Amino acid sequence: MKLLLVTLIVLCISIGCSSYNILVFLPIPVWSHYVQVEPILTALAERGHNLTVYSPWTPKKEVPNFHHTFLTASKLKEMFDLFFASEFLAVLSHKLAAPIISSTSHGYSESTLQIAGALNAFAHLPAKFSNYVPPMTFVQRLDNALRNAAFMIHNKYWYYPSIDKVLAKHVPGPLPSVSSMLKNVSLHFFTGNVAVDGSKLLPPNIVELSAHIKAPLQLPKDVQDVMDRAGNGVVYVAFGSLIKASQFKKENIELLLSVFKNLDRTVLWKADFNLTDVILPKNVIVKNWFDQVSILAHPNCVLFFTHGGISSMIEAINFAVPVIGMPFFADQAHNLAYAEQYGYGLTIKYTNLTHDSLLWSMKTVLQDPKYKKNIKRGSRIIRDSPMSGVDTAIYWIEYVIRHEGAHHLKPVTLQMPWYQELLLDVTVIFVTIFSVFMYILLKIFTFLVFCYRKLRNKSINEKKKTV
């Protein structure tokens, strides 16, 4: 899990800022995750903070105070002012007695919301790996509640206890339970934006960021010439850093190429398959790498065929490029479900991929101006912010340090049992009182009916005697 980007320094936090030691532990070897945090780390170092960074990725440029290293056990014993890492490394924060900031690369998740004290968020937020979008139907809300309940039970009674056993075996000294250490996370950064997946009711210890969007660079001359000369526009195709086109079935690669051939557009495809195995249409250019931001920022980019990862969606919306989405796993279907709801584009399933369905989808988004109009609206929303993503992240990182962990930001729900947070105890009392009240009313009504019938029968019997 990781963090985010954007550039500029806000004056009020630039003046008189102290220098701090910050440990950054980002071990997951996924470039699309690391790219979300790299600009923030660079900006922190440029502001004079001393960063020790553990990650599989070396910095693009040398920056004073930016120390990239693979940490050893002895190095971990050094004292740091802040420990910035995944929340599941909170044990190191406990050992180092330093506050911790976690960053989630795919936005909110059920586990992080629970750790942050927002357990009841599932009432309005769909499970991340579902394709639900608000407002959810009753059946969807029921399924959403069951998913979250199952996740909570799994963590509480199996996952966290299993981690506690591993820690007790390998980490010297007594430790609190991992569930209690996770509550010590000072702040949670979520990659996301209201323009991507809507507004959310989040506590103040959660900050949503879209900070990785950099200024577009000058494209290589051959690519720049292609972009500039594309009178009908360019369709950009990329499926992220994890999904390799070389892993596609050959017939699906040929299917995609046949669709691209029928588009009256130039197609740039970031792919790694062997070009000698296929016949490329004249309008298709395939390379192992394109600068995605610079391609999307070009005014001639008219469509983005994407897997729907959160970083790619933020970039597409920021530069107002309509999308065709083909999700594969994780949060991709979730992101693309919102994109369809907001009118940014259309989604097609890889398992149901056909020539006609993909061609129809691409031509529909290219020819219907509503998709461009809708994503332009999203672009205005994502760009209209009082502070850049990098500046927002730096402000909150320094805020946590200045306030020695900023634990005052945490909601009181972190100290409440789950049944209190969900008002189940209050609901039980209300239901009990209502049930007792209704029971008493029923008894009174039954008694009155009984008395009425008794008096009525008595009256009838007296009349019979007089006769």
Automatic annotation (TrEMBL):
Sorted UniProt keywords: Endoplasmic reticulum, Glycoprotein, Glycosyltransferase, Membrane, Signal, Transferase, Transmembrane, Transmembrane helix
PROSITE patterns referenced in this protein's UniProt entry, alphabetically: PROKAR_LIPOPROTEIN, UDPGT
Catalytic activity: glucuronate acceptor + UDP-alpha-D-glucuronate = acceptor beta-D-glucuronoside + UDP + H(+)
Keyword Glycosyltransferase annotated: yes
Chief localisation class: membrane
Regions crossing the membrane: 422-450
Bilayer topology annotation: Single-pass type I membrane protein; Single-pass membrane protein
GO molecular function, one term: glucuronosyltransferase activity
Signal peptide start and end residues: 1-19
Family classification: Belongs to the UDP-glycosyltransferase family.
Record protein name field: UDP-glucuronosyltransferase
Subcellular localization(s) per the UniProt record: Endomembrane system; Endoplasmic reticulum; Membrane
Single GO cellular component term: membrane
Organism: Trialeurodes vaporariorum
Pfam families assigned to the protein according to its UniProt record, in alphabetical order: UDPGT
EC number: 2.4.1.17
Protein origin, superkingdom: Eukaryota
